[in-house]
Structure formats: C-alpha cells, structure tokens
Design brief:
DNA-binding, Cro/C1-type_HTH, XRE family transcriptional regulator, mainly alpha
Length: about 180
Amino acid sequence: MNNELGRKLKNIRLQNGLTQEEFGDRFLGTKSLVSKWESGRNRPNPERLRKIANFANITVEELLKDAEEPPHLLVGKRIRSIRLKHGMSMTEFGKLIDNVKSGVVSNWENGKQIPNKLRLKKIAKLGNITVDELLDITNYQELYELEKERNSLLVQEIQVLKEQLNLLNKKDTSTKVSK
C-alpha cells in the first residue's frame, strides 16, 4: 500500500507538536482514526483533507501528491475484503462468481484485472453493496463513522446550548423577580 499520505500527515502533526489525540480533536477525529490515517489503513475524507491542507499551508493536491492509489487497486482491495468477510478461499470465491479460477480472483484482488459487468454485479451482491459502490473510490464505512461522530458532536452542542438557554431564562426570571 502506498502510505505517502500517512507519512505526510504524521509529519504535519509532529511539526506542529501535536499528539494523535490533539490532531484528531483539531479535525473532529479520534486518536484511533489519526493512527489509521498515519498507518495508511484509512484516509481522511475530502473535507478533512482540505482542512488539514489549510492547516499545513499547502494545497490538497500537494498533500495527495504521490499518495493516490490507482482505482483498480482500490476495487481489488474491496473484492478481497468481500471474499475474506465471507471466509472464502480464492478458489471458493471464484467458483461462486461465475466459476472462475483462483488465479483470476488473484488478478482482480491485485488490481491486474477488473471483473466484467456480470461478475461485478455478483461480487457487489455478495458484498451487499451496489456496483457503483464497489467501483467508487469513496470509503463508505469511513463516511458512515464520520457522520455518526459528527451527529454525536451536534447532539452534545445542542445539549450545551439548551443548558445555556436554561441559565439565561433563570437569570431573566430572577432579574424580573428582584425588580
């Protein structure tokens, strides 16, 4: 896996004297998420990439330079993930997907080949995703986790605002009573 982006993110964090937790807080992430970014297991979503680039006074393009994986490698990783999620060997997976040989499955997973449309449909169905999701470079699981995290932060902010409003209302009532 090309981990140039992870190295760049770690350098940005260290150059600014931040821990993984502090870096995560700055970009609405967790220490664990920052660790995944830096190790190359995950990557920041486009909005976070923009904010991190701004923080580092560079463009997103500079941040991503030499860090992009070709789309066919990402498709291969998704195919491998689907196969492993079902606990199948390459041979078992190949038989299920149009009776192809394990070498063909290996080529898909290594990004050397992309399955044809019929096979893509079968693989996507097995992975409980659409063909578009299988071919898309967006990490939907990460987006889902980020949305959950964002929702949780919004709920916390709403609670703080409610408490502040209650305090203001109490102050307003006590002012009226003392007049």
